[in-house]
TrEMBL record:
Task of the protein: Acts on leucine, isoleucine and valine.
Protein name: Branched-chain-amino-acid aminotransferase
One Pfam entry name: Aminotran_4
Keywords: Amino-acid biosynthesis, Aminotransferase, Branched-chain amino acid biosynthesis, Pyridoxal phosphate, Transferase
Catalysed reaction equations from the record: L-valine + 2-oxoglutarate = 3-methyl-2-oxobutanoate + L-glutamate; L-leucine + 2-oxoglutarate = 4-methyl-2-oxopentanoate + L-glutamate; L-isoleucine + 2-oxoglutarate = (S)-3-methyl-2-oxopentanoate + L-glutamate
Enzyme Commission no: 2.6.1.42
Amino-acid biosynthesis listed as a keyword: yes
Organism: Sphingomonas aerophila
Needed co-factor(s): pyridoxal 5'-phosphate
GO biological process, one term: isoleucine biosynthetic process
GO terms for MF: branched-chain-amino-acid transaminase activity
EC top class named in words: transferase
Pathway recorded for this protein: Amino-acid biosynthesis; L-valine biosynthesis; L-valine from pyruvate: step 4/4; Amino-acid biosynthesis; L-isoleucine biosynthesis; L-isoleucine from 2-oxobutanoate: step 4/4; Amino-acid biosynthesis; L-leucine biosynthesis; L-leucine from 3-methyl-2-oxobutanoate: step 4/4
Length: 365
């Protein structure tokens, strides 16, 4: 086994042609999500003989790949998503990056890929943010979204785990995910398609899960809804999650419920953070299955008063309406719920350093 690379070993090769200040400033005024990219990227290679090697921060540039590269055929790919924030005192910080690093290792194991050491993962993110710190938007709700990912880079069409991998981190300046005042989204329950099954890759953050969710998401849009919500693949009864966000239910008695992590649901770090925050507020949070039919009955009887989705990109998104077949039911008053919005504010305040959260969540760069 090759010795692991030290996190300190990142080489910095500055971009010879960073975007000029004026053009950058213009792009940062209204960056949207996932369209404005920074000047650099992190890159680490892995091979069977060398292990992890060649850790660098380099100019962001197109990849040149042989058309037989394994990832293009068998989708051996995993990714992560986390944000760097400007704190109230102007320092930059990552939020729970160690948790992303561990989840990346779990995803790697499931996809038969090598596990990147936690310190290399975190340092790749920190080093990239340091290189591209001028890309932090000044606008309200702005942050730098980091996208670590790893691809099977061996040039070989045989079906087996690749013998070579390329890990990269790209960074995107982002504004608030949803523009304007908080809006509640509408969901479409997919009765035909499922996202993940027991023993599959539902708990791994891999591109393949997203590929499998796109048809159902397109169906949701066609039905006039914003997002699809998936049910379990066996009984087609229990609510699991959205295509890329976890889900919570809020009841009139003040308790919360979220589907349990049974292997088919992605263990969201936002999900985990909100469970912790809600419990710290004295609320009861149950991780237990919830049937789609019960959701509708409880919304109609008034037993359920709020529902929300959560994930790094959009943080906390209120759910206003749900369509199941030809029937549509409304959650609470159809707008953002009170507890939903107070949990969102509590989490954002911690991420931006205006409130103190649990030890270790905010990691200054
Ligand atoms: C990334 C992701 C989430 C949210 O995870 P966070 O760590 O909160 O960003 C939820 N569901 C799926 C399918 C995901 O890929």
């Amino acid at each position: 086994m090759p010795a692991d690379l030290a996190a300190a070993a990142f080489e910095f090769e500055p971009s010879p042609a960073p975007l000029d200040v004026a053009a950058r400033g213009e792009r940062l005024l209204d960056p949207g999500f996932g369209r404005v990219f920074t000047d650099h990227m992190a890159s680490i290679r892995w091979s069977e003989d060398k292990g992890w090697h060649k850790a660098r921060i380099v100019a962001r540039a197109p990849l040149t790949m042989d058309p037989s590269t394994a990832v293009l055929h068998y989708a051996q790919e995993i990714f992560e998503g986390l944000k760097a924030y400007r704190l109230a005192d102007d320092r930059f910080a990552l939020f729970r990056a160690d948790a992303n690093a561990r989840r990346f290792q779990n995803s790697a194991r499931r996809l038969a890929m090598p596990e990147l050491p936690e310190d290399l993962f975190v340092e790749s993110c920190r080093a990239l943010v340091r290189a591209d710190r001028d890309w932090m938007p000044e606008i309200e709700g702005g942050s730098i979204y980091l996208r670590p990912f790893m691809i099977a880079s061996e040039v070989f069409l045989g079906v087996k785990p690749s013998a070579e991998y390329h890990y990269m981190v790209i960074a995107s300046a982002v504004g608030a995910y949803w523009k304007g005042p908080p809006r509640a989204v509408s969901l479409w329950i997919s009765r035909e398609h499922s996202r993940a099954a027991a023993g599959g890759t539902g708990a791994a953050k891999c591109g393949g899960n997203y590929a499998a969710s796109l048809l159902a998401q397109a169906e949701a849009i066609k039905r006039g809804c914003d997002q699809v919500v998936f049910l379990d693949a066996v009984e087609r009864r229990w609510v699991e999650e959205l295509g890329g966000m976890n889900i919570f239910f809020v009841f009139a008695d003040g308790t919360l419920r979220t589907p349990p992590l049974t292997g088919t649901i992605l263990p969201g770090i936002t999900r985990d953070s909100l469970i912790t925050l809600a419990r710290d507020m004295g609320l009861t949070v149950t991780e237990a299955p919830y049937a789609a039919d019960q959701w509708r009955a409880d919304a109609e009887s008034g037993k359920l008063v709020e529902s929300f989705a959560c994930g790094t990109a959009a943080v906390v998104t209120p759910i206003g309406q749900v369509t199941d077949g030809d029937a549509t039911f409304t959650i609470g008053g159809g707008g953002p719920g009170q507890l939903t919005m107070s949990l969102r504010s509590a989490l954002e305040a911690i991420q931006r350093g205006t409130a103190k959260g649990p030890e270790g969540w905010v990691q200054p760069i």
